[in-house]
Amino acid sequence: MSISSLENVPFENPFVDELRGENSGEKGSRQVPGYCYSRVEPTPVQRPHLLAWSDELGEFLGIEKPAERGPAVNALAGNLVTASMKPFAARYGGHQFGNWAGQLGDGRAISLGQVAAVDGTRWEIQLKGAGPTPYSRRADGRAVLRSSLREFLCSEAMHHLGVPTTRALSLVGTGDAVVRDMFYDGNAREEPGAIVARVAPTFIRFGNFQIMAAHGEIDNLRALADYTLRHHYPELGAPGPDAYVRWFEEVARRTAVMVAHWMSVGFVHGVMNTDNMSILGLTIDYGPYGWLEPYDPDWTPNTTDFGSRRYAFGQQPRVAMWNLMALAQALGPLLPDAEVLREGLNAYATTLADTQHALMLRKLGLTPQFPDEDRGLTQALPQALAEPEIDMTWFFRQLSQMAPALVADAGNEDALFAELIAASAYSVAADADRNLRQWLHRYAARLRQEPADAEAIRAGMLAANPKYVLRNYLAQQAIEAAEAGNLSALNRLMHVLKTPFDEHPEHEALAAKRPDWARDKPGSATLSCSS
Ligand code: AMP
Ligand code: MG
């Protein structure tokens, strides 16, 4: 298949063609009962210019990397809508922080339609920050560079870590200023605007179904469920009550796999509202997310959530379950007996536990041999890591390098563990590492029962434990440079995050633990929802 410039790529529009939408084209904020989407054109921006591009995703989609300016970038900014695009904003609702919020919808995201990748699979392209839609409520439909850069970098970083996620194709500067009150303290200021073109098979969320159920729009609910099954879960068979049950179970399983991955890399989504839960089990809507630095289940970067910490790292498995229950409730009207969906919730719990365990075994270089004993081992680790404020990325990477020495059992374990903890802890209060040391002794004994040779174990662990993750302060540095017109930090980060398991000796600094100055710095440690 050939590679084309975006303005020449044919788009298909099944969401618009097969579901009920309103076509007034009006951009004014309003309730849109009775419809799955609104047709709405992006609002042009002043001076669209390409800031970043994902080469690998572009190649996969058969889309050529655009020049800094020109028709392809105009399309990525919403300034050019080609003949085959039928842009739309989806209608959805959601529970925000546990409370039903009514209609939300794509308030600043506009989908252009879908394109065929080189393997024939279909991918929707959506512009985030493309201007007002009927779902914008009182906001402006725009996005600032800082949050767009964070979404662009993190979705690609997650993909390369093997975490299920939506993707990002491009980051485009708009040349327009956007006014934001970043700290919600009455000090609004102008910031550069940007648009991310994000990519996924679909951006349908739990909330798309919830809004239909909440309004008693059962025909739309069924139509959307059938659409989702036909296009995204064809392997589950013809739509109907039995298929809906299998489908819910599969959504639950995928959600569990996604959350297990978050827990294994130290990712905190930050805003797990039901409108931010993908029906495909993909990480979606990168807002005030963050990466664990000191291992702390109670940590969240989201300042809006500092009071209740509903979406803190350690809460994520429970919240995903809560969100699945909300989805089950929305799907209830499609079934003679909604109780059968309970199986799906059970599948969530089992898949989560199994996947978390399997991922942890891989990180530890262990193969499943002693099921009960190994569960005990993996389950004891989080607590042991939390006490001495361990940087989990560093810890697992160092542990990987140390595996051959542990296997060799030369009688120097205590020294090795002291070195490991000193290298990966932020601060060790007296004796706070006692449990971790004990755990490490137990682990080393278990490691020596592995049949593989030590070098093979190390290689396997290095392939499971990234050296590079998008540390919060690194993203912030790239943002500050980009706002000043310098894209080199962004490009450097993108480079290492594409191969996070490799060594990049020239970029050792990008693997460093969080420096002290970044500990409480806004953007590096805390984030608001303002974006
Ligand atoms: P989020 O917190 O990003 O998941 O957004 C929650 C809701 O607010 C969604 O309906 C968004 O589309 C909407 N929203 C967030 N920011 C804006 C904005 N700047 N303009 C319009 N709608 C927005
Ligand atoms: Mg959202």
Short description:
By secondary structure, the protein is of the alpha+beta class. The chain is built from 16 helices and twelve strands.
Structural class determined from secondary elements: alpha+beta
Q: Report the span from N to C terminus.
A: 38 Å
> What's the helix count?
16
Total number of domains: 3
**Element order: H for helix, E for strand:** HEEEHHEEEEEHEEHHHEEHHHHHHHHH
Poorly predicted runs of 5 or more residues: none
Tell me the helix content. Answer: 40-55%
What Rg is obtained from the alpha carbons, in whole angstroms?
A: 23 Å
Shape: globular
Bound molecules: adenosine monophosphate, magnesium ion
Tell me how many strands there are. Answer: 12
Beta-strand proportion: 5-15%
Mean pLDDT: 97
Main sheet specs: 5 strands, antiparallel
Arrangement of strands in the largest sheet: 3-9-10-8-7
Can you describe what's shown?
The protein starts with 13 loop residues before the first helix and ends in a 33-residue tail after the last helix. Strands 3-9-10-8-7 form a 5-stranded antiparallel β-sheet. A 3-stranded mixed β-sheet has the order 1-2-4, with no helix packed on it. The protein has 3 domains: 6-205, no CATH class; 207-360, no CATH class; 366-462, no CATH class. The protein is of the alpha+beta class and 531 residues long. The radius of gyration is 23 Å and the shape is globular. Helix 4 crosses helix 15 (472-483), helix 8 (316-331) packs antiparallel against helix 9 and helix 11 (392-408) packs antiparallel against helix 12. It has helices spanning 14-18, 55-61, 71-77, 145-161, 206-214, 218-232, 241-265, 316-331, 342-363, 371-386, 392-408, 413-424, 434-447, 454-462, 472-483, 488-498; strands at 21-22, 37-39, 49-53, 88-90, 93-96, 99-103, 109-116, 122-128, 167-180, 189-200, 267-268, 290-291. Bound molecules: adenosine monophosphate and magnesium ion. The site of magnesium ion has 3 residues, from loops.
